[in-house]
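Morning - adenosine-5'-diphosphate inputs below, output right after.
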Amino acid sequence: MRPTGRLHLGHLVGALDNWARLQAEYDCFYFVADWHALTSHYADTGDLVANAIDNVADWIGAGLDPEQSTFFVQSLVPEHAELYLLLQMVTPIPWLERVPTYKEQMEQLAERDLSSIGFLGYPLLQAADVVIYDANVVPVGEDQVPHLELTREVVRRFNNVYFPVPPDAPSRGLVEPLALLTPTPRLPGLDNRKMSKSYQNTIDLADSADAVRQKVRQMYTDPKRVRADIPGTVEGNPVFIYHDAFNPNRAEVDELKARYRAGTVGDVEVKTKLAMAINAMLEPLRERREAALARPGYLRDVLFEGSARARVQAQQTLDRVRDAVRLRY
Ligand code: ADP
């Protein structure tokens, strides 16, 4: 995750909930992608470290456990950059130019300068991030599948050049990772566009109960419903998408939907109950987050220790790679 701002409910349903579940089954590596933040925000680095600490507090809030998984900072494991450089040697520029997110982001982020080698190369840096841990799977949404495909193609090419088939093989090649596709629901924001920090339509995991109540009150609902006695539409209505996602009281949700469709409930009641449900869901996250932030130096220690652990593995891979490339002096 890139440390470019606070984490919000979209990150929770789209990534963190799933990451927390995977911990039981896999040896997981989760990292603060600070170099990736630079690919689009190179002129804007003042808050990176503060954001990183704040984001990791939210990871812990969401149930990620640094005892069970490895949390690290990308720039504290500089081997990522060395592997990235070596992968660049075998990667044709058009492979990067045809990654769909490349053109999309250029269009969507027209106000940012994305003409750099750093931005063009970021899917290849991602490839290095993954491959350096001999990762078998990467939990991603649909939009990241082309990046994994690029990773696999680059790995095949790299292995062809540097890890020829036995008997000449000096050691085993890089591992081709698979996408562990997670059905990521796109959570809408308060204004019904995608929830995103760039739209200022988020409910943040760090928001107070009061802030949540206030934000929910301003939420977009069915625009044709100017009075409470007009029948409303539930489907695609963000207030009900949130009720479905965050309110565990199914009976209450079903009853509110029926009354909304019939025009026998006001927005105030629907939203008040939604804010209560979100606050009840967020309360244990807030407690874990605050407890982590309250321990002086704790989150920094977690990141330094995790980075040291990650680095041992990264160095082993790099050793193998340096041997294969015959860069052994
Ligand atoms: P970046 O850090 O590259 O800017 P984002 O902050 O947009 O990316 O997203 C980080 C992760 O959170 C991704 O896995 C993304 O799919 C997920 N995510 C972000 N916003 C939402 C949302 N509104 N709904 C679902 N998932 C989201």
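Note: DSSP finds 14 helices and four strands in the chain.

O.
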